[in-house]
Amino acid sequence: MTDTGTVAITVSVNGVAHTREVEPRLLLSDFLRHKLGLTGTHVGCEHGVCGACTVLLDGYSARSCLTLAVQVDGCTIETVESQGTQDALGPIQAAFRDHHALQCGYCTPGFIMTVADLLEHHPLENDEDIREALSGNICRCTGYQNIVAAVRELAKARGPLT
Amino acid sequence: MKDAGLSVEMRPKMVGSRVKRTEDPRLLSGTGQYVDDLHPAEMVHVAIVRSDQPHALIRDIRADAALDVPGLIGVYDFTDLEGEVSPAIPSSRMRNYYATPIWPLARGKVRFVGEAVVAVVATSRYAAEDAAGLIEIDYDPLPFASDPADAACHDAPLLHEEAGTNVIISREFQHGDIDEILHTAPVVVKGRFRMTRKSASAMECRSYLAQWDKRSRAITFHTSSNIPGIVRDVLSSSLGLPGHRLRVIAPEVGGSFGGKGSLYAEEILVCALARKLERPVKYVSDRLEELSSCSQAFDEWMDAQLAVDEQGHFLGLKADVIGDIGAYSIYPWTGALEPVQVISFMPGPYRVEHYHGRVRGVLTPKPATGPYRGVGRPSSTFAMERLVDMAARKLGMDPAEIRRRNLIRDEEFPYRTAPGIIWDKSAFQECLAAACDGADYTAMRAWQEEARAQGRWVGIGFASYAELTGIGSRIAVAPGMPINTGTETSTIRIDSTGAITADFGIASHGQGLETTLAQVVADELGCAFEDVRVRQGDSEVAPQSTGTYASRSAVLAGGAATKSSRVLKAKVLRAAAMLLDVSEEDLEANGGVIRSRSSNAVLTFREVADAVYNRMGAIPHDKREDLVSTETYDPYLGTACSSTHLCMVEVDLQTFGVTIHRYFVAEDCGRIINPMIVDGQVHGAVAQGVGAALLEEIHYGTDGQLQTGSFVDYLLPLASNMPDIGIAHVEAELPNNLGGFRGMGEGGTIGAPAAIANAISDALSPLGVEIETLPATPDRLFRLVTAKTQEISSQEGNKK
Ligand code: FES
Ligand code: FES
């Protein structure tokens, strides 16, 4: 810790290494949104319930509102901005668009990052499985049906977990 | 097709298609911009110290300790804004009404836990919260009545002394002699129904950013609101700034469902501070603040009775409703919006000759209630549909049959209900039939029989309702409200590059209006969908607008888009006719290309624009018209959107948890602009209805404290709570408005609580349990079942 009470951290975010002095209490969500300007990650509850703030931390989904920036020193973070751009949507984003799996879009980045983890690590064998796997993220707009449809299609395209 | 006025060759192509949304790429890639994503230079942050008292005088505010916090800019209470702002007054022409003034910060007295008292401004939100934590407020607690029935008593402590009462709203509808009917009817069923308090809980919390421009002495205010035009107008008087020095923008808005559809004290506050400090000022509410100070929903007690003859025909209905409207009358809708709609819509889509509805809206020390998806009708439909099922059970009649006998029939439209609402022709009966067909009602009953034989608690529930959508200028959306909610304006322009911009006052917050309105413009103007850019949610692009709420945008903005496109198209064709030297009648426009029917001559919109604007003399100077049109649409009356929901649920014998096995919605929403978006609205609205039915309840203790201050206590539906929802669209006859659209965004929330309550009551009917309070939580169901089982066993004991 420095005299000013800040801590130097180095984090790889979406493939780019960032070194910053941060207060120990700075939330990862605030670090990403307000220090790095990656505002795709959203905050819906600040206490770990809604999943809007979900990012990948070393490849696994994590709640950035419950993680301190200093905890991810030396780690790899991926946010929704890593998944594709407006002109070249990634596969999860494209499936969400095709299935109308978003309305206001506020929960969407969190869902996308959760699904990125699920596709890597979760069998997603049937709808019940998919619904259970998605139940850590809240969407107030869609009633989930179209999100489930998007994930069903992505899981099918992926095939069984190896 | 009525009123569409289109020749066969120009039949719409975009309207009716599952067009993918224009909004999506930016929202999916994290490039959308919500208010909190904006970071102007020099911006400062507000943290708010809120009341921890339900009703108290503010004796002293001590901020000394806060002043040393690094980064602190200032600490402000109401005295610091005295003379700089005037309050917003939610006025109405209603009799016996008191309009509670809305100030940015509490003035000497607090009236609910969560009311804003002190604003702390600092260079970061962290610093602002550090300082806020060091501020001490001394209160002199005052007595209060938290229960609306207590608060309505004449000797109850008053929240607003000036009103002289806590009952600031009272209204009655009387048609026929209900007491005589109740006295003589062969069957009367009754209940004391309770729809508890809810929170709209959009995933984005309320967020505000006001920027003061020193050069033009103007404010640009970004707000997560679905009524930016109303906010502009009220802030204009509150801050004393003309509209051209006050621009209100609702950028991406992360849902509202009504929660962001009223003016908030914090909106006045942030603008006043920005002007005072001459710096950009941002306030973003956190979830606790959202649950304790955003407008809340419903909260009614409804004593209701239905009289029925032996054949199941409804004879009369009586309802006495108390609405707990919280501590303030909300701006602009007033506290009457929700409770008055309950009695206005209680007879539902049925023939009810004799009706007496009475409502009182009572002030209590809680956040104001305001609009929430469905407004009034989730409660009224819950009470009425429960009565309908209770009557059917008493008569031994199938719940589908009793509805069939009482739903308004085709030949009866337009039908004027006892409270004076006029239903235009809509598929009331057909939706019931379509729900039974689509969900396979017969098979559901068979399945239920099997499950029951195994001792399982499985039940089936219906809910039929109609809502008034797309309301024009004949009546204000809220009773007696002096704001024009009956019109919307659209300006469409083709500029010198050939780009088409369509401006609207409405404010999309998840509905995909940028897509649907572009679909309407593309068809009506004959241009390419991709060439249309829709601008909305910005007070600068329309002279007046009230925004997006009350299922009005498809009807009103769609109508304005249609009118404006038609005027502009005529201008484009007039110019093209001159350029091609043919008659206008010889031309047709489609997909951005103008063709002559008689020759092979072709012009693009872009070429026409180029000729009009850039090529001097291409069009005779006295015939040249700018390619711009502004038109306002007023549907005058509203149009009915009708629906029947049908579901099957199971109550777990051990946990008393409810699982929804099947859910089906049949609805008539007129001509559909985008079926993908319409289905999405149904899914989302049903989910909110499921929340209201099974999970969501804002709870205040008798000490006036909020007991549900997080999403751990206030439960929202999750993917695992929701079934797949089947949908059938019934299109009986298009309504008599421009475009043939009906509003449909709210219906799911209206039908689902009633349908689920009926299904649970059906599941538990062997025990005689009738659901009267929502949400039907496991705890409530356990108590109901235990009480009934004890009753039954003590009766059996007595018999022995
Ligand atoms: S914001 Fe992190 S879980 Fe809700
Ligand atoms: S799309 Fe609005 S919360 Fe999910």
Task: Note the main attributes of this structure.
heterodimer; A: 162 residues; Ubiquitin-like (UB roll); DNA polymerase, domain 1; 2 domains; 5 helices; B: 800 residues; alpha+beta; Aldehyde Oxidoreductase, domain 3; Aldehyde Oxidoreductase, domain 4; seven-stranded mixed β-sheet; six-stranded mixed β-sheet; globular; binds FE2/S2 (inorganic) cluster; Dehydrogenase (chain B); iron ion binding (chain B); AldOxase/xan_DH_MoCoBD2 (chain B); Ald_Oxase/xanthine_DH-like (chain B); molybdenum (chain B)
What does it look like?
By secondary structure, chain A is of the alpha+beta class. Chain A has helices at residues 28-35, 91-98, 108-121, 127-134, 145-158; strands spanning 7-13, 16-22, 54-57, 60-63, 76-78. Chain A has a five-stranded mixed beta sheet with strand order 2-1-5-3-4, covered by helices on one side. In chain A, strand 1 and strand 2 (16-22) form a beta hairpin. In chain A, helix 2 (91-98) packs across helix 5 (145-158). The mean pLDDT of chain A is 96. Chain B has 800 residues and is an alpha+beta fold. Chain B is built from 18 helices and 29 strands. In chain B, the strands form seven sheets. A seven-stranded mixed beta sheet of chain B has the order 3-5-1-12-9-10-11. In chain B, a hairpin with a 5-residue loop joins strand 19 (488-494) and strand 20 (500-504). In chain B, helix 5 packs across helix 6 (265-277), helix 8 (337-345) packs parallel to helix 9 and helix 13 (513-526) packs parallel to helix 14. The longest helix of chain B has 28 residues, at 553-580. Chain B is globular, with a radius of gyration of 28 Å. Chains A and B meet through helix 2, helix 3, helix 4 and helix 5 of A and helix 1 and helix 16 of B. Bound molecules: FE2/S2 (inorganic) cluster (FES) (2 copies). Residues 43-46, 48-53, 63, 65 of chain A line the site of one FE2/S2 (inorganic) cluster. Chain B: Residues 29-143 form the Aldehyde oxidase/xanthine dehydrogenase a/b hammerhead domain.
